[in-house]
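Replying to the earlier thread about multi-chain prediction with a worked example.

Input:
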Amino acid sequence: MGSTKLILVLFCLLLIISSSSAAHKKKMQARKPCKRLVFYFHDIIYNGKNAKNATSAIVSAPAWGNRTLLAGKSHFGDVVVFDDPITLDNNLHSTPIGRAQGFYLYDKKETFTAWLGFSFVFNSTAHKGSINFAGADPLMNKTRDISVIGGTGDFFMARGIATLMTDAFEGEVYFRLCVDIKLYECW
Amino acid sequence: MGSTKLILVLFCLLLIISSSSAAHKKKMQARKPCKRLVFYFHDIIYNGKNAKNATSAIVSAPAWGNRTLLAGKSHFGDVVVFDDPITLDNNLHSTPIGRAQGFYLYDKKETFTAWLGFSFVFNSTAHKGSINFAGADPLMNKTRDISVIGGTGDFFMARGIATLMTDAFEGEVYFRLCVDIKLYECW
Amino acid sequence: MGSTKLILVLFCLLLIISSSSAAHKKKMQARKPCKRLVFYFHDIIYNGKNAKNATSAIVSAPAWGNRTLLAGKSHFGDVVVFDDPITLDNNLHSTPIGRAQGFYLYDKKETFTAWLGFSFVFNSTAHKGSINFAGADPLMNKTRDISVIGGTGDFFMARGIATLMTDAFEGEVYFRLCVDIKLYECW
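Result:
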């Protein structure tokens, strides 16, 4: 990893750390992760015109929605299936080191919140295996915690917390997340 | 919490306890939860006419269904996204202390069973953080157990069992669940 | 279980074991499951003509798909809800000992991969309770590992790994999976 990339990852970490409350930080000091990983992943939603580049698609919508445009009422009821590239830095065009695969759904009418069920799937020399995630993502918050509910291969039986941060978004088509994975159970 | 509310919560607990089998109770005595919480949550399904009050919406349906009426064949294949208020007592109009957010799907043609993936999201002085749930809900049974698969904030790394009980329902639009959350791993 | 059935289960186990890498096997020896279970389950997707026999149905599809035929682009975006019989041997017509209930979704355009969220639900003298699963299923691989994220009843608080193997498929309507469940946390 070049020094520029290292700086980008540190930047993501710093943003996440600086936005934690003091009380939370205090508690976390006593809970040192047994493994820590920082990645970016990139989501490009299919909008009827970007079939080639899209990495995700709306597959369910409420009665007032459709499948090529996120619905009104804060996208409430839209379900999106995704196969997003995972990269070490924030560049969409960097060589992916794995795929983020699963779904998210928007679940509030008044603001943007989501619920996520997905896996990070790795098959490289660096990492083999998968990490499974689930949890609520109130995506207007700077950082959000979801659960690592299990893992396979190199991440056999993992449990922990993943802190998500929206690193960038463009319109309602592209967004990029930074993920700080902290495992507290390692086998 | 006033004495009337206390009685309602106790009533929910009593119903749940009295319907456990003796064998199950015996086993459970040896497994004392490290944390226990009892809540109600309230689901009002969008039916095309109740946009203002609805807290959930059908977003997927089988080929024989639609998105404003639960489908025939025991609603098999309907997927519902929800953002339901959580209350301390069984009154829909009590001040919510959090939100139950996620989805359920009906998964049997011959009778009513569901599969749930959701979170309790809290952001009050009493509780901050989230509890993540997944599991099968054979909802014609008086009580049903699902898994607590993780938690964040005050519920960091939680695992346990949540016992669901249908406390009330009106037609196919409103239903109210009582949830008895028992955590057996607390950090 | 008759000797023919025993041979079939052993056959499934042998296939799974023989396809593990030597390195993986070595690691696994140090991690002996506290409980191990092998089952088959059977999925028959509704295609508009098999309402009587179907055990599952497409409930969501991308903009380019529909609900009676798995979509193009490797079924990307199709969501299937299922209630599949679980059997001890590979015979669809054997007496089911439980039901596999939940959903899977196809999440890659270039090849067949899925994400699963489901439960095994048992209510017999042999097993009472449920096992909850989640994880990525790259179904072109001979074997795939997903996570056991929790359990109830006889499987109270279970955690572990389930190895899936496609045992047979016919067109895009019927497929049969062999599942080797290894629990590493038993209560």
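The longest helix of chain B spans residues 3-18.

Feel free to reuse this layout for your own posts.
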